[in-house]
Amino acid sequence: MLQTDFLVIGSGIAGLTYATKVAEAAPHRQVLVLTKTFADETNTKYAQGGIAGVWDELNDSYAKHIEDTLVAGDGLCNPGVVEVVVKEGPERIREIIEWGARFDRDADGEYALGREGGHSESRILHHKDVTGKEMERALLEKVQSLPNVRILNHFFVLDLITQHHLGYLVTKSTPDIECYGVYVLNLETHQIEKIESRITLLATGGNGALYRTTTNPAIATGDGIAMVYRAKGRIENMEFIQFHPTALYEPGLRGQSFLITEAVRGDGGILRNHTGEAFMARYDERRDLAPRDIVARAIDSEMKIQGTEHVYLDCRHIPVEDFVHHFPNIYQKCRSIGIDPATQMIPVAPAAHYSCGGIKTDLYGATSIRYLYAAGECASTGLHGANRLASNSLLEAMVFAHRSAMQGLALIEGNMVYTTLAEERASLPDWDARGTTDPREMILITQSLKELQLLMSDYVGIVRNNVRLQRAMRRLDLLHEEIEDLYRSSIVSPQLCELRNMITTGYLIVKCAQFRHESRGLHYNTDYPGKSKLLQNMVM
């Protein structure tokens, strides 16, 4: 059994910021970071646009950023959380700059600030069109320089360890559920190990892989959300799945789509349908810079009206040297598939992008399970409400990683961890794999995954209705039954466990969508086209 003071599950911006914070503040404490693939394979790595923050105080203000966030969130943001993130965000950005992150500057040496949909001012710091990759690089280098941080690659977390594993009955009504660590599958030895931790942070990212096309990598399977739900922790607002309006359309592509960042529209890119019409003026006065939920629904509507699988992003009027300078990665990708943005419009379509709901936390990232924290996309902090404002995600991850770290440090240094007796925790059982065998046919897993992605895309996408949601739930119930039978009888594998987590996360998305009898933000149900006067979060 491994033991550590701080256990971090996930190595994106939230996990690595947290690890840096606790390791530097408490050099005598051990910090262990787990990642199921390589440390740099995270949702953070694929974030293109940038990180939002009030930087130009002459033209921008906290009040403006707060208002933009609240408007995008469509009435469901927690105003207190929004204020905290916006006001503390610039300091977190300065820290990552000190740690080595490089953001683009203009000819005068000042930071070049971009503007994206929903923002009233230019406040997006960026590094070309690979901002997340640059921030991930800086954070990894920083963490690897700290002697009390250890990163273990290829460790797949199976479940959280709580009083349930000591023989206690644990339900959602159980007070003071405690997290003692995790069971993990070592993908190199194929052995299941037990890791005990005093404080655990979940920074497991999102769940875009539930859909047929997504801007997320294949690892975004909702693992942390599913684990907390199984451990009887609180989950909320899962119905709010953000579809990025402009993923590069490639015929026949399944899985990860190439993202065309919103910053392209911020620099003047115009959405056009197949007749060449710049259609966004018919949907919103902000046109191409409307919030993402509005732009995604507008594109979906145009595709259905015209019977097409994509629309176009017109960048031909942008000077090619400016486009190449600001978006070199996008330019290279387009040219690699035979599209020249200087002379041709870029085919784009919405793709699953970001989960605004997740593990319910407080202002310090604490979950409903004691000594368990969550930060980043897997968490529901109250910042995003019904729709995330562009480039607020990296900001939120850093702010809540910092806040979680400060509270975790206070608990450990104050010796306030655990009410369960140490001798009881010492009897935590090893993983029980008795009665299981290797699965005879991988087709049982791969075909179920295809079914899941199809039903989520077709029934629980940008536009929903009650019949679609009912069909989705019936099919999810069947998939759940089949995979649970396979899980009980088979030796665990990453493929099986990811599918199990995805089915659980899909269930939570559909169930929250069925509870919400209105259309708000990212949840648009044609049976309830209006908004309810009763605003509430859907907690599971």
Rounded average pLDDT:
94
Strand percentage = 15-25%
Instruction: Using the CA coordinates, give the radius of gyration.
Output: 23 Å
Number of strands: 18
Please give the alpha-carbon distance between the first and last residues: 32 Å
What is the correct CATH architecture of the largest domain? 3-Layer(bba) Sandwich
Compute the number of helices: 14
Helix-and-strand structural type: alpha/beta
Count the domains.
2
> Which parts are unreliable, with pLDDT below 50 for 5 consecutive residues or more?
none
Q: Globular, elongated, flat, extended or rod-shaped: what is the shape?
A: globular
Helix content: 25-40%
CATH superfamily annotation of the largest domain = FAD/NAD(P)-binding domain
Structural commentary:
The chain has 540 residues and is α/β, with parallel strands linked by helices. It folds into two domains: 2-239 and 356-424, 3-Layer(bba) Sandwich (FAD/NAD(P)-binding domain), CATH 3.50.50; 246-351, Succinate dehydrogenase/fumarate reductase flavoprotein, catalytic domain (Flavocytochrome C3, Chain A, domain 1). The chain has 14 helices and 18 strands. The chain has helices at 13-25, 62-72, 79-98, 131-144, 223-230, 263-266, 292-306, 320-326, 328-336, 393-413, 422-425, 443-459, 466-489, 494-515; strands spanning 2-9, 31-35, 51-52, 124-125, 149-153, 155-161, 181-186, 191-202, 213-214, 235-236, 241-248, 255-256, 270-272, 311-314, 346-355, 358-360, 372-374, 379-380. Strands 1, 2, 5, 6, 7, 8 and 17 form a seven-stranded mixed beta sheet that branches. The protein has a four-stranded antiparallel beta sheet with strand order 11-15-14-13, covered by helices on one side. Helix 1 links the parallel strand 1 and strand 2 (31-35). Helix 8 crosses helix 9 (328-336) and helix 13 (466-489) packs antiparallel against helix 14 (494-515). The longest helix is centred in the last third of the chain and has 24 residues, at 466-489. The radius of gyration is 23 Å and the shape is globular. The model has no long low-confidence stretch (mean pLDDT 94).
